[in-house]
Amino acid sequence: MQIYEGRPAAAGNRMEKEMRVYELLDELGISYVRADHEAVMTIEACREVDEALQIEICKNLFLCNRQKTAYYLLVMPGGKNLQTKELSPQIPSSRLSFASGEDMEKYLNVTPGSATIMGLIFDPENKVQLLIDEEVLEEEYFSCHPCINTSSIKLRTEDVLGKFLQAVHHDYIKVRLSR
């Protein structure tokens, strides 16, 4: 697997939403490296990408409350498993479950297997609340998909939390999930 500095040289067969991520990162002066790969649908499938980027790719879960009136994007280390009873009192919202693929597309413009913090570009009305596990916040680097699961990017966590979230007008709630 080859690592590239920045965006692809040409848009070619890249999806518009992926190119929009690169455009925004470039506009914000955020440097990143990129790996292109076969589609990965699970954290387990990301192991080779992790090795190439020398980082653990974050697990991104798209959740909602039972009434489907509140949506959450949870970013956590890939090695952790979600216990909703542990998360619910921290946000606070009861009866969390996975949101539908249709809602993921509607609010973040991504499909199942491609959930990413970069999808917040497509949530100008702030319908999705970002939740980030404290362990992710402690890392120097952050890795995610650019709205498509055939590429992964690695960038500085401080750039994501500062420049990127400010540009997309989102903030986050820090949560603590056990291993």
From TrEMBL:
Ranges where the YbaK/aminoacyl-tRNA synthetase-associated domain occurs: 37-160
Regions annotated as coiled coil: none
Pfam families: tRNA_edit
InterPro entries per record: ProX/PRXD1, YbaK/aa-tRNA-synt-asso_dom_sf, YbaK/aa-tRNA-synth-assoc-dom
Gene3D superfamilies (alphabetical): YbaK/aminoacyl-tRNA synthetase-associated domain (3.90.960.10)
Domain of life: Bacteria
Signal peptide segment: none
Similarity section: Belongs to the PRORSD1 family.
Record's protein name: Prolyl-tRNA synthetase associated domain-containing protein
Organism the protein comes from: Claveliimonas monacensis
